[in-house]
Amino acid sequence: MGERVAFIGLGVMGAPMAGHLARAGHRVSVFNRTASKAARWVEQHGGSASPTPAGAAAEAAAVFVCVGNDDDVRAVTTGPDGALPAMRSGALLVDHTTTSAMLARELAAAACARDIGFVDAPVSGGQPGAENGTLTVMCGGDPEDFARAEPLVACYARLVKRLGPPGAGQLTKMVNQICIAGLLEALAEALHFARQAGLDAAAVVEVISNGAAQSWQMENRHRPMLEGRYDFGFAVDWMRKDLAIVLDEARRNGAHLPVTALVDQLYAEVQALGGGRWDTSSLLARLQAQSRKG
């Protein structure tokens, strides 16, 4: 028999992640703000659904959270009917939401006061990674808590690594988002330049992706970018939420992030084009719109 676990938040990431836990033999209780999604998940995977986070978490050895932002995490963990007060002593709370490092430390302290372990564990790999069980998971927490979380998280991850104490996972995710933002703007400008120069942009990428310019973003995003197809992936609205967290942390720790701040403003222009739900690779659409204006 697997462990009794709870999963709170069944969005495009949480639903498949919880599904992997169920397929691995764990007994999963779920909660989602939209109850119909939880009901559909139970129909597909078994387990049970609860009308509150507290109900889902009450008997669980480990509780996983994957929601939208800091306020959402607080609502389902420490708010009315939140999971944390209902969890039993010795249980483990794992937060997969991308949040501030301050929240991670806040939750770690609240969990510790109740003799509950805590790991902040934001993920990278997007919806395909969640569905295929190939996420990269960046963790912060005490070594003992991480050791308990690792085999469970491995059900939907190809890499699970502890980077330090509570908050270290979120700080590492910020580094990840800084890299992605800069890479995508560079790729958008490169493809735009190639087209303006009269080159076959797809052929150019075939060549340069075998050299020093190679990146995951180039290999996986250049085709839909050239097709003008952005109705998938990680939304601009979500990236701006993440970059706001990054820039706030940078103001606190003294890091200078001029490119990240610029790309955040470029994403604001994509939002103004109506692209808030477009994939983050839609930075090319902004350049094309500027060219049409002359």
Task: Report what the structure shows.
Strands 1, 2, 3, 4, 5, 6, 7, 8 and 9 form a 9-stranded mixed sheet that branches. The mean pLDDT is 97. This protein has 2 domains: 4-165, NAD(P)-binding Rossmann-like Domain (Rossmann fold, 3-Layer(aba) Sandwich); 171-293, Orthogonal Bundle (N-(1-d-carboxylethyl)-l-norvaline Dehydrogenase, domain 2), CATH 1.10.1040. It has helices at residues 14-23, 35-45, 53-57, 70-77, 83-86, 101-113, 126-132, 143-153, 168-196, 201-208, 216-227, 236-253, 258-272, 283-293; strands at 4-8, 27-31, 48-49, 62-65, 92-95, 117-120, 123-124, 135-141, 157-164. The chain contains 14 helices and 9 strands. With 294 residues, the protein is of the alpha/beta class.
In brief:
This protein is of the alpha/beta class and 294 residues long. The protein has helices at 14-23, 35-45, 53-57, 70-77, 83-86, 101-113, 126-132, 143-153, 168-196, 201-208, 216-227, 236-253, 258-272, 283-293; strands at 4-8, 27-31, 48-49, 62-65, 92-95, 117-120, 123-124, 135-141, 157-164.
* Percent range for β-strand residues: 5-15%
Helix content: 55-70%
Q: SSE order in H/E notation?
A: EHEHEHEHHEHEEHEHEHHHHHH
Task: Let me know the largest β-sheet.
Answer: 9 strands, mixed
Shape estimate: elongated
Please state the second-level CATH architecture of the largest domain. 3-Layer(aba) Sandwich
CATH-derived topology of the largest domain: Rossmann fold
Can you tell me the CATH class of the largest domain? Alpha Beta
Give the radius of gyration.
Answer: 20 Å
Number of strands: 9
Compute the separation of the termini in Å.
65 Å
- How would you state the average pLDDT, rounded? 97
Number of contiguous helices: 14
Structural class designation: alpha/beta
Low-confidence stretches: none
Number of domains in the coordinates? 2
CATH superfamily of the largest domain: NAD(P)-binding Rossmann-like Domain
